[in-house]
Design a protein that fits this description.
This protein is of the alpha/beta class. A six-stranded mixed β-sheet has the order 1-3-2-4-6-5, with helices on both faces. Strand 5 and strand 6 form a beta hairpin.
């Protein structure tokens, strides 16, 4: 995937590539099952995670809890995602981000989220047209980006950890909210392992 429509992000990636020539440092595409029942949407690539490895939530702290949980609930073949070529496969699920490029300080600007939403919208349409049943939004930005991509108003669907929204469009799907599995959230106990696992336990029990 190549995209330079956000000048701030493309310039930032170019500067990083000069410092870290072995880093992916490009837009990070989705990873997982081609016909998923579950689509997991995060915020954006991490500096030394997906931005380095080229796979969402791979190579940094944020992916530890996510992949361990996916493995526990039969959605991944391994409990760890270490590199894009480590042989890990996702089962029935796919992972993407609201913003495909690493933003400075991991904070995309509103116009960057809107610009990148065309790619998420395409992924959501593919998801709906195939076997899609449940979307997991990791954090408020992802939650809002999903609704934007589905062209749904945000007001009727408030974000909150554990919230479940029924979305009726071409087909009825559910949107599950979770706090993002970032280092900050897990270390401050805003998000515990039990809280995160409860989200996926609910999803897998309902599919």
């Amino acid at each position: 995937m190549q995209c330079d429509q956000c000048s701030r992000l493309s310039g930032f990636l170019q500067s990083l590539k000069s410092k870290h020539p072995d880093y992916h440092a490009r837009p990070v595409v989705a990873f997982g099952d081609e016909h998923p029942e579950i689509l997991i949407v995060g915020l954006a690539p991490g500096m030394h995670g997906a931005n380095r490895t080229g796979r969402p939530f791979t190579g940094d702290y944020a992916g530890i809890l996510l992949y361990r949980t996916l493995y526990k609930y039969g959605l991944a073949t391994k409990p760890e995602s270490l590199a894009a070529d480590d042989g890990l496969r996702l089962l029935r699920c796919r992972i993407t981000n609201a913003v495909k490029c690493l933003p400075p300080e991991n904070k995309p600007l509103p116009q960057e989220i809107r610009q990148c939403n065309q790619y998420l919208q395409f992924e959501l349409n593919e998801f709906l047209n195939r076997n899609g049943k449940a979307i997991v939004a990791l954090g408020l930005v992802a939650h809002k980006a999903v609704l934007m991509g589905l062209r749904l108003p945000s007001k009727p669907y408030s974000f909150g950890h554990g919230n479940i929204h029924t979305l009726s469009m071409k087909k009825t799907i559910k949107l599950y909210d979770s706090y993002h599995c970032s280092r900050y959230n897990t270390q401050t106990k805003r998000l515990t392992t039990e809280m995160f696992e409860q989200v996926f336990a609910k999803i897998t029990s309902e599919l």
